[in-house]
Amino acid sequence: MAGTDEDAVAAADDALYVLTAVLLTPAQFPSVLGDDYPEACAALGLLPRAEGYGLVLGQDGDGARWTVVIDDVSLVAVAVAAWDCGMEHDLSPDESTVITALPGWPLAVAVAAPGVPAPHDPAPEVTDRPPLAPPDTSTWGPAQRRLGADEIALQWSTWRDQIDDSRFASPTAAPAAGDAGDDAVSDEAGDEPGGSHSGLRRALAEARAYIDSPPPLGRVRSSFAPGDARTLRADGPGWSLVARTDDIAFVLLDEQPGEVLPVGRGPQLPGLLEALDKLAVRPL
């Protein structure tokens, strides 16, 4: 497996104080790392294993940061679910499940292990690869754009309540199935940003193209939503989309720093969301 380093694994296994853990699977991965699952794996120097990985972030006895990659995805899933519910859960991966140990952390961790030195990167002689570090989110770019879409998905009601549906143009007769023309986008986008927004038109057209040419695994993901709806997350070069299958969508663009562009139901969006949901990967 790419990145395996026996010395690094031994160092990380020596009294690793687990701080947190995340899943790295086709259906659930830190989107800050990439637009899709293979891209997120590549950021860590890992092959895109179909079953996915569990990432355990912690410190060794000297305080050094380590990311231990394990193949027991269920173990991490149970721990994350317990922590999300505010429950205590001991995460102690068996040595046989460890694939590799990577220096550093790929994500920002706000806590530290008690009784050891402050978090720092391992000494260079312990590992043969540069330490992982969280993507730069201090300025607007792909990582910040994807984090923004994640936040909208988590706080959907808050964002949805800010949208007055009257801002969207009244839909005209529905175009023919599969038509991704500017008129369809104009009806759905409404007055702000309006059909003249080339970036929004491009994002919706590229999302539609996924239906005929499926994108890399994880570009489109579907998760739980209230009622019979699903929450969709889709990404592409320079854009992110978050939507409810029974409601509107929001689009974020690299070229529009900090802006959230609403897309109304219109005649085309319902069919697009239904089709994307059918090809999306879902958590087990």
From TrEMBL:
What's the domain of life for this entry? Bacteria
Ranges annotated as biased composition (Acidic residues)? 180-191
Q: Where is this region: Disordered?
A: 116-144, 169-200
Low complexity composition bias: which ranges? Answer: 169-179
The protein here is known as Integral membrane protein
Naturally occurring in which organism (per UniProt): Streptomyces echinoruber
